[in-house]
Design brief:
By secondary structure, the protein is mainly β. It has 1 helix and 14 strands.
Length: 169
C-alpha cells in the first residue's frame, strides 16, 4: 500500500504556480501531519494533510461544498468541493479527554456549507493540552505538489494548504 507524502512548509510568497488555497478550518499553530499522535494519520495512510494545534475550538468550512458525512460524534467531517476535492476534517482530543464530550455545536443535519461557515465548536478553556485539528486531502493522488504556506493560521481567513500545478500532466 502506498501512503501519501507529507505536505512540507513553503512560505506563501515562494510557492510557484498555486492553483488552489484551502482556507484553514482551524486557528492555531500549523505542524506537519507527521506530528499527529495516531499512526493512521501521521503515516499518510488516509491522505495528504497537516495538523493544527488549536488555540480555539471553532471549526469552519474550508470551501463551498457538500457535507458527505459526519462521524465520531462530530469529531470527523468529510466534505466534498464542487470540483470533486474530498477532505477529512478530524479533531483529536487530548488523551485524558477522549471519552468526554467537548463539542457544543456541530454540522449534524447540514447538507451544504459555504466557506467560513461554522461546522463545529468545541469547548477548550478547561483543557490542559490543546485539541489537534487535522485537514486531510483524501483524494490527493492526482494533485500537484501541496504545501502549508503559514505556520500560524486563523479559521476561515488564512490558507492552510496550497495546491500547485501538477508538472507531470
Amino acid at each position: 500500500m502506498q501512503f501519501s507524502q507529507s505536505i512540507p512548509f513553503a512560505p506563501i510568497n515562494e510557492i510557484v504556480d498555486p492553483v488552489l488555497h484551502l482556507a484553514s478550518p482551524f486557528s492555531g499553530k500549523v505542524q506537519s501531519l507527521k506530528q499527529h499522535p495516531l499512526a493512521l494519520f501521521s503515516s499518510g495512510m488516509i491522505g495528504r494533510g497537516v495538523t493544527v494545534e488549536l488555540i480555539q475550538g471553532k471549526v469552519t468550512a474550508p470551501f463551498d461544498g457538500k457535507i458527505e458525512q459526519v462521524k465520531r460524534h462530530g469529531y470527523e467531517i468529510i466534505l466534498v468541493a464542487k470540483n470533486g476535492l474530498k477532505l477529512l476534517i478530524h479533531i483529536q482530543p487530548p488523551s485524558e479527554q477522549a471519552n468526554t464530550s467537548l463539542q457544543i455545536t456541530s454540522a449534524f443535519g447540514k447538507k451544504e456549507v459555504k466557506q467560513g461557515e461554522l461546522l463545529a465548536y468545541f469547548e477548550t478553556t478547561h483543557l490542559e493540552k490543546p485539541l489537534l485539528g487535522s485537514l486531510l486531502i483524501v483524494n490527493a493522488d492526482r494533485l500537484g505538489p501541496c504545501f502549508y504556506p503559514l505556520k500560524q493560521v486563523r479559521a476561515g481567513l488564512d490558507p492552510l494548504i496550497t495546491i500547485t500545478q501538477n508538472q507531470n500532466i
